[in-house]
Amino acid sequence: MPCYICGEKKLYKFLSLGQQPPSDAFLRPKDLSKPETTYPLELCLCESCHLVQLNYAVDPEKLFRDYVYNTGSNNSLKKSFANLVNNLVKRFNLSENDLAIDIGSNDGTLLSYYRPHKVKILGIDPSSATKLVLANNIPTIVDFFSRKLSAKVIKKYGQAKIITATNVFAHVKKLDDFVAGVKDLLTDDGIFVSESGYLLDFIEKLQYDSIYHEHLRYYSLKPLEILFKKFGLEIIDTERGSIHGGTIIVYAAKVGKRPIANRVAELIRQEENFGLYKKETFTNFAARVKKNKLALRKLVIEKKSEGKMIVGIGAPAKGNTLLNYCNLGVEYVSYLVEKSRLKIGLYSPGQHIPVVEEKRLFIDQPDYAILLSWNIAQELISKLRRGGYRGKFILPTPKPRII
Ligand SMILES: [Zn+2]
């Protein structure tokens, strides 16, 4: 598979997590005996434009229609959306004459924060999570965003002053078509704001469990500059965010329409100093990933042989990557506790670990609980302690440790 941004055909494959089922493909009890479809999960570096990407893309129809994640269930995410929207309204003087579009709008949580400011809103999302927008009363088009859909939106709603795409821009398979559609859809002074997992955090904090089939690209700023340039857009500002373990927020506008903040060049310098444009950085990363797997397995096997009970906290996509790559199944992890009603009663893809209600943790009091949603570890630990859990927590990455 060639580079999504520059088209380079020869990519440097630095990490393989093996064949895995899609990490959000939870199974119903009656599906457990059927074979699961798996796809390669491998990361490559483009040595021309420095983009990091998967070398295999699963058909989006298979990944996103039955999406079992809903934004409104995550408190840190909600807070981050509220901040983002309030900043956008203030900074770009958004008013009732402006249209704000959110691509990958999920249950409409982000868009709901525009409400007090009277900004016109529209969501676009293909997944079943959009069923919840009816309750939230958010106008939503249930479809994949594309250049073709963009033309339809312009006809019906006009152009948008703000287009946001949070945690979705790295998931789009037809990237060029997507960016072309965004450019068409923006007003002349419009801004495209994307927030995606940041490669620098990913490498530094060893977030290999953020690798899953939906997540096709692992962005740093420099390759994105090259991407936007192809479409007459330029990056005018950037920030680092803290949700999902570290994100990059990128503001792009039509060339020459907005001043460019110094922070853009500064962050590219930081990336260069960190080694994001060097092959060795990725070779070292892969070696650290393998070491982590061995260390985590050793810890879990040791505790299990002492007769301890171990469970998992949360059933996020990243948890499945980790459990599948480290080959930790029900013989080690008895069950995963979840709050999301969409997942309770199902089984994790690959390892087939049952997903149960959170209250089981307080009843069974297992000796160890692996924090699979480490990105909200602090929030979870204090909440579960308050709930009465008395066992110990295991943080799996960057170095497995007991707390
Ligand atoms: Zn490239």
If you had to describe this structure to a student in words, what would you say it looks like?
- Helix 5 (147-157) runs parallel beside helix 6 (175-185).
- The mean pLDDT is 94.
- The protein folds into two domains: 64-279, Vaccinia Virus protein VP39 (Rossmann fold, 3-Layer(aba) Sandwich), CATH 3.40.50; 299-402, Rossmann fold (3-Layer(aba) Sandwich), CATH 3.40.50.
- It is of the alpha/beta class and 403 residues long.
- It is globular, with a radius of gyration of 21 Å.
- The protein has 13 helices and 17 strands.
- The strands form three sheets. The protein has a seven-stranded mixed sheet with strand order 6-5-4-7-8-11-10.
- It has helices at 60-64, 75-91, 109-112, 133-136, 147-157, 175-185, 199-204, 221-229, 262-274, 279-305, 317-325, 359-364, 377-387; strands spanning 12-20, 39-45, 52-54, 99-103, 120-124, 140-141, 160-166, 186-197, 217-218, 233-241, 247-254, 310-313, 336-338, 355-357, 368-371, 392-395, 401-402.
- Helix 11 (317-325) links the parallel strand 12 and strand 13 (336-338).
- Bound molecules: zinc ion.
- Zinc ion binds at residues 3, 5-6, 8, 46, 48-49, 51.
